[in-house]
Amino acid sequence: MTRPERFRRFLDYFTSNFPEPKTELAYRNPYELIVAVVLSAQCTDKRVNQIMPALLEQFPTAAELGSAKAEDIFPLIRSISYPNNKAKHLAGLGRLLLEEFGGEVPSSIEELQRLPGVGRKTANVVVSVIYNQPAMAVDTHVFRVSHRLGLVPKTATTPWPWKKRWCATFRRKLSRNRTTGLYCTDAIFA
Fold first, then answer.
1. Lower Cβ count inside 10 Å, N or C end of the chain?
2. Catalytic residues
3. Hey, where are the domains in the chain?
4. The predicted structure's pLDDT at residue 77
5. Mean pLDDT across the stretch 118-139?
């Protein structure tokens, strides 16, 4: 089977078996999602979902989170991996959301990456889930599995060129059939 045939088969499988991909993180609005995604780095979604209710009770909006100190946030997230850094990131994230974005979560990857604790992968998750933009969070695991499935050549050493190709393919598919619900998202590939 050629790589394009394998790729087509892969897309067809996910289109029919996962027509509306969703994140496992529990959230009700963009603020809650970005907080959850920041916390989910190197941590399970299940653990994040367990601590989010208490965190959101204390800091229900970016304004409350932005007025908090890392020391206020830490006890609520201590069971999450890297709680010291994530507490600092969340306090800074809340402040910057208020100062730069009026308390709203921005919709562009570039603006999201300005927020503390938000890198390329987190920004891609937020724009794909909240704003339905074709973006894909490619990490080492996704890249390794893509090699095993034969979706990328054995010579590929970085996911970046292939991420662009996958997203371009998904955009073409999406423009042909908007009813599939198929987006180039972390939920599909993770």
1. N
2. 121, 139
3. 3-22+134-189, 30-129
4. 97
5. 83
